[in-house]
């Protein structure tokens, strides 16, 4: 064997040795990685089982339908129109929302902007977020309409689009974040604090299931936002200010069809390592528009648990119109004070319970089982009082007693009448009414009773006067008769002195 052949053989053996060494190291690494992943998955599953064992507060209400045990740390099922809570699990615990933050971002952009306005992407909007995070590939200096930006936020979950929308509304990201916190406070959120527009992790960026449902209830009252967030796939077409042609698919499985469900109106996904899976979804069936929020969940349970919670709500609860079922309260002016063109044909009661209000209660509960309370502290001049309904302390709905208005009213008893001039009485049990000293309430029954008493007094006075007058007349008559009798007697006595 030549020297050259020996060198080649030696090099080949070295290469083979290196390859074997590399292979062994690689196998060890893969084994450790797989072991770590297996341990991690096992730990996650243990955490899921621990979260399933957490108490569900709504299940503790007497005669309330038992809700499902789910793997989320916190969850809520709320009616978007009334705020009635059907299912509650740790709803006030502060947790990380991840990209469900973008619900507030999109809502504020819709409230403060015009869909046709152009939104420009600044350097900060594009480069202040991680390049490997959710994005739609926008470059600095490009611009799209606000409508397309909203599709980017809600469908593509684009972090740079959320930043650009914030700058469009407030001029800077920091000012927009301040607006987010202000709006959350106005809505009644007490466990929410935002640090950015998109939900990227920050220890001081948090919310609760209740607060997120409250924010989402405003979002899903806007039909355009429902349409955008319920889009499974959106086509971003090239324009002179944005040259790319591309599609983005919604990752929400109840929206993109991977998990079919009737009545879905929209929603938003979210994920970070700290928040785990988060999900907000809205669906409408049986007259109920329900918002479901799950926080700190594992995939794909956030979708299946949401569907299970919707089934629980739509199958176990009913909607009852309040004006059609209320029997406890008497509108005291009905039948006495009427407004309209005439008393007999087109007139109507001056006070009435609004016909659009409803309660949401379990199927096993009747309207008569509810507790109610009247609140007179209303500033609206057309509202006399509010009636709040509850079941075992759980709020289930409310209604307003309205003062009817009609400019063509024939009978105007008081042109300055406001909501502070009337009273409602609860037949059973007796309502506790807190009235200020300077507030005047007109109680029609009491007014009528007062009129009757006054009439009775007047009649009694007339009767007494008549009796007295009759007594005096009778006395005078008796005196005249006595005088006549005395005169007759005197005449007979005078004639008795003569002898005829």
Walk me through the structure.
The protein is an alpha+beta fold and 500 residues long. The longest helix is centred in the last third of the chain and has 52 residues, at 444-495. Helix 2 packs antiparallel against helix 4, helix 2 (102-112) packs parallel to helix 5 (159-170) and helix 5 crosses helix 6 (173-187). It has helices spanning 3-52, 102-112, 123-127, 146-154, 159-170, 173-187, 209-219, 223-229, 301-316, 322-325, 444-495; strands at residues 74-79, 85-89, 118-120, 143-145, 233-236, 246-249, 264-272, 276-285, 288-297, 317-321, 329-331, 338-339, 348-349, 351-353, 358-362, 371-375, 383-391, 394-403, 424-426. It is built from eleven helices and 19 strands. Strands 2-1-9-8-7 form a five-stranded antiparallel beta sheet, sandwiched between helices.
Please give a handful of descriptors for the protein shown.
about 500 residues, alpha+beta, 4-stranded antiparallel sheet, about 40% helix, elongated
- Global structural class: alpha+beta
% residues in beta strands: 15-25%
State the end-to-end distance: 209 Å
Regions with little confidence, pLDDT below 50 for 5+ residues = 33-38, 332-339, 407-425, 429-441
State the order of secondary-structure elements, H for helix, E for strand.
Answer: HEEHEHEHHHHHEEEEEHEHEEEEEEEEEH
In total, how many beta strands?
Answer: 19
Which bin fits the share of residues in helices?
25-40%
Q: Give the number of helices.
A: 11
Largest sheet descriptor: 5 strands, antiparallel
Form type: elongated
Radius of gyration: 40 Å
The order of strands across the largest sheet is 2-1-9-8-7
Task: Compute the average pLDDT.
Answer: 83
């Amino acid at each position: 064997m030549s020297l050259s052949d020996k060198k080649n053989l030696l090099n080949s053996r070295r290469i083979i040795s290196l390859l074997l060494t590399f292979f062994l190291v690689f196998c060890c690494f893969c084994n450790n990685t797989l072991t770590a992943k297996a341990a991690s998955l096992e730990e996650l599953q243990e955490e899921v089982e621990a979260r399933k064992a957490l108490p569900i507060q709504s299940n503790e209400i007497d005669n309330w339908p038992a809700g499902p045990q789910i793997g989320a740390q916190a969850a809520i099922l709320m009616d978007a129109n009334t705020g009635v809570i059907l299912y509650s699990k740790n709803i006030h615990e502060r947790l990380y929302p991840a990209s469900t933050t973008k619900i507030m971002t999109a809502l504020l952009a819709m409230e403060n902007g015009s869909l046709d306005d152009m939104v420009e992407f600044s350097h900060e909007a594009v480069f202040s977020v991680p390049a490997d995070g959710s994005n739609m590939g926008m470059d600095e200096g490009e611009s799209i309409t606000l409508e397309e930006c909203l599709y980017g936020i809600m469908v593509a979950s684009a972090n740079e689009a959320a930043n650009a929308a914030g700058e469009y509304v407030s001029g800077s990201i920091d000012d927009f974040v301040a607006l987010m916190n202000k709006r959350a406070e106005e809505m009644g959120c007490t466990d929410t604090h935002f640090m950015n527009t998109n939900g990227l992790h920050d220890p001081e960026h948090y919310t609760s299931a209740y607060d997120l449902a409250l924010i989402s209830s405003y979002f899903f009252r806007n039909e355009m936002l429902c349409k955008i967030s319920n889009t499974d796939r959106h086509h971003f077409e090239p324009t002179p200010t944005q040259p790319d042609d591309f599609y983005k698919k919604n990752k929400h499985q109840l929206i993109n069809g991977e998990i079919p469900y009737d009545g879905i109106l929209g929603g938003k996904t979210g994920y970070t390592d700290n928040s785990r899976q988060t999900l907000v979804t809205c669906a409408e069936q049986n007259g109920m528009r329900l918002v479901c929020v799950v926080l700190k969940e594992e995939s794909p349970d956030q979708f299946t648990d949401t569907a299970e919670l919707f089934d629980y709500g739509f199958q176990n609860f009913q909607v009852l119109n309040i004006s059609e079922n209320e029997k406890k309260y008497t509108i005291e002016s009905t039948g006495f004070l009427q407004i309209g063109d005439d008393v007999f044909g087109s007139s109507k009661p001056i006070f009435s319970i609004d016909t659009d209000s409803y309660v949401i209660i379990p199927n096993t509960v009747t309207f008569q089982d509810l507790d109610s309370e009247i609140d007179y502290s209303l500033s609206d001049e057309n509202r006399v009082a509010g009636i709040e309904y509850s079941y075992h302390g759980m709020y289930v709905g409310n209604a307003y007693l309205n003062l009817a208005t009609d400019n063509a009213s024939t009978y105007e008893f008081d042109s300055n009448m406001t909501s502070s001039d009337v009273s409602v009485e609860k037949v059973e049990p007796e309502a506790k009414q807190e009235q200020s000293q300077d507030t005047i309430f007109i109680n029609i029954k009491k007014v009528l009773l007062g009129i009757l008493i006054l009439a009775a007094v007047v009649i009694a006075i007339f009767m007494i006067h008549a009796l007295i007058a009759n007594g005096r007349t009778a006395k005078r008559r008796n005196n005249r008769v006595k005088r006549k009798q005395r005169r007759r007697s005197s005449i007979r006595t005078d004639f008795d002195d003569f002898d005829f």
